[in-house]
C-alpha cells in the first residue's frame, strides 16, 4: 500500500521538477535601462519617462507611476507599451527628486516590479 502510493506520486514529482527547471531558464522582464537614466540628473523636467525591459511586455498588465518632488503624482495617465518598451508622459512638476515605480507582466506570464529615482535641477 505504502509502496504503491509512493510510486503513484512519481509522475507529479517529475512534473514539479520540470516546472522548476523551466522556471530557472525563464528570464522575466527586468529593467534594462531608462530615460532619464536611473539615478541621473537632468537639467529640465522631462516630457516623458521611457523604460526598456529585457523581455516584451503585456500592455494590459504593465504600468508606471511617477511621483514628483513634493510627492504629487507627476505622470499624465496611461503608460504606452511597444514591445519591450514602456513610456509615460509627465506633467510639469518642478525641480527635485522624481520616483518611478513600475510593474510589468512579461510575455512569459511572470510579473516583476521595481522603482528608481532621477533628479531634475541645475
Ligand atoms: Cu519570467
TrEMBL record:
GO molecular function terms listed in the Swiss-Prot or TrEMBL record: copper ion binding
InterPro entries associated with the record: CopC/D, CopC_dom, Cu-Rt/internalin_Ig-like, Ig_E-set
Keywords per UniProt: Copper, Metal-binding, Signal
SUPFAM superfamilies assigned: E set domains
Main location: other
GO biological process, one term: response to copper ion
Signal peptide: 1-27
Pfam families noted in UniProt: CopC
GO-annotated cellular components: cell envelope; periplasmic space; plasma membrane
Subcellular location: Cell envelope
Protein name per its UniProtKB record: Copper resistance protein CopC
Coiled-coil regions, chain positions: none
CopC domain boundaries: 28-120
